[in-house]
C-alpha cells in the first residue's frame, strides 16, 4: 500500500511537471502581424494593394519634383529647400508609395500590387505571429526586398518568400 501511494505521488508530480514545462493545455497566443509596404519608383507608387485577392487600399503616393515641390496623393503639400550640397541636388522627380497593414493574421498570404494600367506583382509570404514585416519594391530595378532578403520581381511575376 505504501509503495502504491509513493508511485501515485511520483506519477502526479511528473504529470504536473510535464504540463508546466509544455504549457499545459493552453492554446498558444496568436498575435496579429504588421506589414509595411514601401515602393520606390513611379510605376507602382500609387498601386492598389491586395491581400489574398481582396483589395484593401492603395499606396499613399509621394512625389518630390526636381524643383522641390512635394505632392502627397497628387495634392501639393510644400516646397522643400534645395540641398546645400550640389552633389545631392535633385535632377529628376522622385516617386514613392507606402501602405501599412496593422493587423494581418499569421499564416501564408499573397500580397499583390496592381497599377492603374493593370500591371501586377505578387509575393506569397508566410506571416509570423506578432512579427513586423517590411516589403520594399523598387519598380525601376524590378527588385523586391522581404525582411532584408532581396529577390528579382518583374511585373506579371509571383514570387514566394520565406
Helices, strands, pairings?
Elements: H1 2-22, E1 33-40, E2 48-51, E3 54-58, E4 60-64, E5 69-72, E6 75-79, E7 94-104, E8 108-114, E9 120-126, E10 132-138, E11 143-146, E12 149-152, E13 158-161
Parallel strand pairs: 1-10, 9-13
Antiparallel strand pairs: 1-7, 2-3, 2-8, 4-5, 4-7, 5-6, 8-9, 10-11, 11-12
Count the beta strands.
13
Shape: elongated
Q: Mean pLDDT, as a whole number?
A: 87
% residues in beta strands: over 45%
User: What class would the helix/strand composition place it in?
Assistant: mainly beta
Span from first to last CA?
Answer: 58 Å
Give the SSE order as H and E letters: HEEEEEEEEEEEEE
The low-confidence runs, each spanning 5 or more residues with pLDDT under 50, are none
Note the main sheet: 8 strands, mixed
Radius of gyration: 25 Å
Helix residue percentage: 10-25%
Number of helices: 1
Strand order of the main beta sheet, please?
A: 6-5-4-7-1-10-11-12
Describe this structure in words.
The protein has 162 residues and is mainly beta. The chain has one helix and 13 strands; from the N terminus they run αβββββββββββββ. The strands form two sheets. An eight-stranded mixed beta sheet has the order 6-5-4-7-1-10-11-12, with no helix packed on it. Strands 3-2-8-9-13 form a five-stranded mixed beta sheet, with no helix packed on it. A hairpin with a 2-residue loop joins strand 2 (48-51) and strand 3. It is elongated and about 95 Å long.
